[in-house]
């Protein structure tokens, strides 16, 4: 029978039943997620490891009260001190990733706000808040994933509804910012769609936008890979002398260098590629030494997986012992699953900023939760507290 095991370090543990869901300013205040080599209480992670046999993968449904003690204590410490004194904080979820929104609410000790979102027959979106937000600090969780434009429009209408309901502040929490790749001009007569989308969100009435690991740091500041990935790799106890961090392209060198520094200042390698078109990558050569080492490829997203898989093939060709792929956003556009499950990668480590459909599970896939990171960030922003100190 197929199974999907949910594990928490340092020991296996159970998970709330809602995790069984299959749906699982330019910017007024963008937050940079930075990491530290030290492990804090906010760095604990949940991982979903796909272990497929015959049949469909499943997640055990259990009572959400049976939790590992360290997670329960962290949650209760936050909710006991904050919830009673912060009745003006409201958290609402769009339809793009309700499972992640529920996890964030659980970590924060809050209930998700009541909201009605429906589609008319012609595709128009209707949004109505079913509780008062007058004078409240409202946070709307909605990644702009597939269908990108529909989810973006839903977010804009949610922001507008909150503003018209006299919310004091409206913050768009966008775990995955769908147009982040078009953040600058690389050729003549190109649009900068990321700036356009950011302007749309703020024009709709959002005071702030929180996003996780944007595609590029040139125009938005630097955004790190979430620390849950670092913690997960550290738990695998790979010897420092055997590890090399690999950037799949020249544009990701800054991210990979920062990642390598957190992993005992591991050596760095770079895959040099030439892209002939969007979603098409041609690997040319490797800068650096990976022979006999465990190579960890780091990127912000995996879309069609062409870059990652061709890079993995090159690393094996150059003598790498094992190849891991780490990314924040599991976009997984076809034929990504076929490529990733082809045997070149020891493990594909992603986060749940995007919902991953059960049909896209494969044995090498591990999904880490960023709910506690986003939940703690929301609390810190609401309290006007330091965000960077989360990781100290």
From TrEMBL:
InterPro entries according to UniProt: Pribosyltran_N, PRTase-like, PRTase_dom, Rib-P_diPkinase, Rib-P_diPkinase_bac
Catalytic reaction(s) noted: D-ribose 5-phosphate + ATP = 5-phospho-alpha-D-ribose 1-diphosphate + AMP + H(+)
Domain of life: Eukaryota
One Pfam family named in its UniProt record: Pribosyl_synth
Domain Ribose-phosphate pyrophosphokinase N-terminal: 89-205
Keywords: ATP-binding, Kinase, Magnesium, Metal-binding, Nucleotide biosynthesis, Nucleotide-binding, Transferase
Coiled-coil residues: none
Transmembrane segments: none
SMART domains documented for this protein: Pribosyltran_N
Family: Belongs to the ribose-phosphate pyrophosphokinase family.
NCBIfam families: PRK01259.1, PRK02812.1, ribP_PPkin
Name by which UniProt lists this protein: Ribose-phosphate pyrophosphokinase N-terminal domain-containing protein
Organismal lineage: Eukaryota, Viridiplantae, Streptophyta, Embryophyta, Tracheophyta
